[in-house]
Amino acid sequence: MQVEPTEGDVLVLDEASFEASVAEHEALLVMFHAPWCGHCKKLMPEFKKAATALLADTSGKARLAMVDATEEKDLAKR
């Protein structure tokens, strides 16, 4: 089991951790975001709340994750 960095209960993925996280979790919803994006900024507090609720309800089988698409351009293109 790989330990990904988190922001609250949201996994923070990059090129090195993405495939392993997809394989590890039964369900994984990934938000590709840009830190400067107004819509992303507005969504993030609710996304974090949902991640906490999902983690508690599924005992870690389903997770929410995010990828900074400005830093992980190749991953975002895939």
Describe the structure.
The protein is built from 3 helices and 4 strands. By secondary structure, it is of the alpha/beta class. It has one domain (6-77): Glutaredoxin. Strands 1-2-4-3 form a 4-stranded mixed sheet. Strand 1 and strand 2 form a beta hairpin. The longest helix is centred in the middle third of the chain and has 21 residues, at 38-58. It is flat. The protein starts with 5 loop residues before the first strand and ends with a helix. The mean pLDDT is 92.
How many strand elements?
4
Low-confidence stretches: none
**Side-by-side strand order of the widest sheet:** 1-2-4-3
CATH class: Alpha Beta
> Mean pLDDT, as a whole number?
92
- The span between the termini is 24 Å
Q: Name the shape in a single word.
A: flat
The biggest sheet, with number of strands, parallel, antiparallel or mixed sense and barrel status, is: 4 strands, mixed
SS summary, helix count: 3
How many distinct domains? Answer: 1
Q: Spell out the CATH superfamily.
A: Glutaredoxin
What multimeric state do the chains show? single chain
Task: Tell me the Rg in angstroms.
Answer: 12 Å
**Structural class computed from helices and strand pairing:** alpha/beta
Percent in helix: 40-55%
CATH architecture classification name: 3-Layer(aba) Sandwich
CATH fold description: Glutaredoxin
Order of helices and strands: EEHEHEH
